[in-house]
């Protein structure tokens, strides 16, 4: 490029050239400031007032859990920006902040909302279900939102991380969620520390209720709920570690022992679908044993004043018969309450639209409601009214709560609707219940069990007795029939086996023993001693090598002896009766069975009056089949 051209390019263009901006900026700005401040002091006052008022309003909105800010601004933003598990964590963290920093229910409780549960009066019937505050971090935050009942957990004895992420899914189109957390828990130790810290803080502000000096680990004072709040209850929900033996009760027993003294209610969770084998604990006898063990452990707690009540939480996926088994286990174990229900593994019947519907795990929220309600309706008449039900599953409105109450639930719990609507949910639902109760001039307690005409929530002990007597009779006659059939079948089978053995043996030199067996079998046709003889024949009819020889006792109806020389899973027939009642499969006809030497075969006895058929059978000419 030529030198003149270069210098021309470096030279600023005349219309773009500017004076040094720094040299001009100060006077310009000061001029502007001067010009604007002096005459606008009132405007500035207005704007700062507006700013402060807006801040106060925002804070007021933030603190008041009812404000639309939470449901219509905060929650959509959370859903937009955070995945479900992150959102869940944030909510727990918010509610575990210091009192001054978290939202609360500032509404007034209507007297009509009062309910009774497990011998305690509660100011309102809306509770938070297990799974939201798994590690007891936000107990007071939840109570401050106006829940009458707070259930923490499920907590497992040892800390465990649960299933791999992602494990929590929103099904927004269905107002539902699916989770497969798999009992992620910080363990009993963490929950215990939280419960004790709460108690110590309470003791410091209420020193007169505790011994002085305050013990290191004080126990809750008698006469007040373990929630440490009048008219509200605290429940601890117990789960099992994944590595614990499926059939073991130990994890629950540990939880009762350690955490029982700090809870109004201990919930035995046997219904989470995300821990392998857990739901099998809902079977009749297994559940009865588990619950009886838990109740015994609770009764052994030292703090006799105000022992926690025990409730069991079941699934809504149980059939009517399975719910009847649960009712039986509850009645016969001394458990005081039942929560119906946990999440469901159903999918197809729910007519879901969300693309996440096929995620593995337990489904909660609106689609669960009819199933939970049905389970309540099935279970309620099978339990005496003294055993309350807690309804849970898809409750999202006051009307849902009232439907559960009429079906017999003394209290309802929710989780998923709280996840969607936010911190104002308990207040919204309580207000809806109140307005509905006012319209019908009723109270919550007046609604509980209203669907049943007998005033006992369908419970009729005599009917149950009559039904169980009928079932017993049916079982008895069925048992007789089965015994009869199995006697006949096993006899035919015994004979078949003995004959097969005899057939094999006939090729050997042990002909006599086989005949003895046949004799016995033939002898069995005479009726009276047939079973015993047949068993003896079977036991004696060994074949093959290693045959042992023992002397046949004189009587043909003598006790059979099975010499089991090798260790075996075969059950030795210790008596004829034993051999008879064994299933044929459990008697092994391999060479371990001995051959018995018989005394000479007696001449066939011909009794006076016996017909020809009997005689032919007795003499061995005819075979009994
Ligand atoms: C994310 C999540 C975690 C849960 N974890 C537990 C749990 O640890 N223990 C338990 O007993 N139930 C647990 N549940 C089940 C709830 O307590 C409740 O029974 C179920 O969600 C039905 O109520 P809902 O439809 O109001 O959510 C969980 C539910 C959800 C959504």
UniProtKB/TrEMBL annotation:
<feature type="region of interest" description="Disordered">
    <location>
        <begin position="502"/>
        <end position="532"/>
    </location>
</feature>
<comment type="similarity">
    <text>Belongs to the dihydroorotate dehydrogenase family. Type 2 subfamily.</text>
</comment>
<keyword id="KW-0496">Mitochondrion</keyword>
<dbReference type="InterPro" id="IPR013785">
    <property type="entry name" value="Aldolase_TIM"/>
</dbReference>
<dbReference type="GO" id="GO:0006207">
    <property type="term" value="P:'de novo' pyrimidine nucleobase biosynthetic process"/>
</dbReference>
<keyword id="KW-0288">FMN</keyword>
<dbReference type="Pfam" id="PF01180">
    <property type="entry name" value="DHO_dh"/>
</dbReference>
<keyword id="KW-0285">Flavoprotein</keyword>
<protein>
    <recommendedName>
        <fullName>Dihydroorotate dehydrogenase (quinone), mitochondrial</fullName>
        <ecNumber>1.3.5.2</ecNumber>
    </recommendedName>
</protein>
<keyword id="KW-0472">Membrane</keyword>
<comment type="pathway">
    <text>Pyrimidine metabolism; UMP biosynthesis via de novo pathway; orotate from (S)-dihydroorotate (quinone route): step 1/1.</text>
</comment>
<dbReference type="GO" id="GO:0005743">
    <property type="term" value="C:mitochondrial inner membrane"/>
</dbReference>
<feature type="region of interest" description="Disordered">
    <location>
        <begin position="599"/>
        <end position="625"/>
    </location>
</feature>
<dbReference type="InterPro" id="IPR050074">
    <property type="entry name" value="DHO_dehydrogenase"/>
</dbReference>
<dbReference type="GO" id="GO:0106430">
    <property type="term" value="F:dihydroorotate dehydrogenase (quinone) activity"/>
</dbReference>
<feature type="compositionally biased region" description="Polar residues">
    <location>
        <begin position="566"/>
        <end position="585"/>
    </location>
</feature>
<keyword id="KW-0999">Mitochondrion inner membrane</keyword>
<dbReference type="InterPro" id="IPR005719">
    <property type="entry name" value="Dihydroorotate_DH_2"/>
</dbReference>
<feature type="compositionally biased region" description="Polar residues">
    <location>
        <begin position="505"/>
        <end position="514"/>
    </location>
</feature>
<dbReference type="GO" id="GO:0044205">
    <property type="term" value="P:'de novo' UMP biosynthetic process"/>
</dbReference>
<dbReference type="InterPro" id="IPR001295">
    <property type="entry name" value="Dihydroorotate_DH_CS"/>
</dbReference>
<feature type="region of interest" description="Disordered">
    <location>
        <begin position="563"/>
        <end position="585"/>
    </location>
</feature>
<feature type="domain" description="Dihydroorotate dehydrogenase catalytic">
    <location>
        <begin position="113"/>
        <end position="437"/>
    </location>
</feature>
<dbReference type="InterPro" id="IPR005720">
    <property type="entry name" value="Dihydroorotate_DH_cat"/>
</dbReference>
<keyword id="KW-0560">Oxidoreductase</keyword>
